[in-house]
Amino acid sequence: MASYTFFLSCINSRHNNLSLRQFYLVSLRLLLAAWLGATTLAQAALPDRTTRPAMQVNPGHRFALMDITAMGNRLLSVGDRGGILISSDQGASWRQAQVPVSVLLTAVTAATAEIAWAVGHDGTLIKTSDRGETWHLTLDGTRINQLIADDYQRLLASAEADPNSSEDFLDELRFRTEDAQLALQNKQLRTLLDVAFVDADNGYVLGAYGLLLATQDGGRSWQPMLEALDNPDGFHLNSIAFNDTAVLIAGEAGTLFRRINGDTQWQTLDSPYEGSFFGIHTLGDNRLLVYGLRGNAFVSDDGGDNWRQMPLPLNRTLTGAAQLEDGTLVLVGSFGAALVKPPGQPFQMQRLPIPAPSMSVVPLTDGRIIVVGLAGAQSLTVSPALSTSPAISPPTASSSAAQGN
To answer: Model-level pTM?
Structure first.
């Protein structure tokens, strides 16, 4: 496995080869922006990781994990080389699922009590219908490239047949159509970074260079949505969430999008920050949380129309969030600890048993959280009355480089 230092060294260039979820999405979804960098021209020369089964791992060892989700009384966590781990005892023990791919898996979500989805590098989308025991490949980067190329051909033909289409608009569509064809021919496979299902039938996957796909039939077919968003620069889309009123997307360069339920149009929201967001989280009562680079976290009380910054005790990259049943908010990231905010109190830090960078967190029903990252899965009991923890040491030169702008 490539070292964490190597991933950090890649951060300064958005177009470096991507290899592992920015291994850590950047160190966290941050490595995301970096490593995610290139959809990989070099990939054509690599073995097809979408046909090679996952590497067998020892779940008790430190196995790099990128995301975790709850599925009833079961936990599913995804990570390096196609690894998917299952826990049926609230994180006390883990076992490996049967997975047909060996790509880095970046995100996982449960759609129903039986069905879950996971995404990753090389445009990989896999599905389980037996609560995570076995998975099968439903979509890959080549098929995604074909869907995008076909969609642009359709859009161009429709625009050319419309006498009201301007020449500038047609030129732009022709350019994008040609670009989609080249991606297909050169096997430039995009990384998928997140997946969400509103219900068993309606879901989304998103990822590098503005990729957004939607399904309305439980994943049997997927529709490219690249032109549905006002994202002409193709900023990476890093995270998607939904509540009772809307679906929301957060991404690179402070991009924020919202689609109100019942509306076919996506709105571009005014962003409180120009740096990258690595996560968006719904908090109930139309409240939202977005978070990302340099300890920037913002809350909205009105579904994304207005934002206020949350004061944090550090300025390190944030990559995961969870809310406990009592309203306690937890943030994790590149700093080897959990930031915990009980209702009415400021954020304070609880160190993890192994203080390694973290990617995602899920709450349990007994006051604990499970945090996943470079050190695998760790359990932490959230203290309602936190004592002042030792200050986090300043970032090193390499970790500062990973923070970006």
So the answer is: 0.85
